[in-house]
Amino acid sequence: MPLQQSVVSSPSNRVAALRAKHKHLSDTIEQELSRPFFSEEKVTQLKRKKLILKEKIEGIRA
């Protein structure tokens, strides 16, 4: 039943996409923090986005 397989794999695909975005945000935060005069506001916004993604990932996995 192809329909059931796509439904079953859909959450795992969603988690993979969210993890990729989470990793990208982590890299962006590290890059911003490595700058001599980084923007605390920007870092705070990125960290909030990263936390939201983490909560979405945990919600899907639960």
Report a brief summary of the structure.
The protein is mainly alpha-helical. Helix content is about 90%, strand content about 0%. The model has no long low-confidence stretch (mean pLDDT about 90).
Radius of gyration: 15 Å
Low-pLDDT stretches? none
Helix tally equals 2
Helix content: over 70%
Overall outline: elongated
Summarize the main sheet: none
Structural class comes to mainly alpha
Run of helices and strands: HH
Mean pLDDT: 88
Number of domains: 1
Oligomerization state: single chain
The end-to-end distance, rounded to whole angstroms, is 25 Å
Strand content: under 5%
Strand element count: 0
Protein architecture, described:
There is one protein chain. This protein is an all-alpha fold and 62 residues long. It has one domain (2-61). Helices cover 89% and strands 0% of the residues. It contains two helices and no strands. The protein has helices spanning 2-34, 40-61. α1 (2-34) runs antiparallel to α2 (40-61). It is elongated, with a radius of gyration of 15 Å.
List the keywords.
62 residues, elongated, mainly alpha
How is this fold's topology laid out?
Elements: H1 2-34, H2 40-61
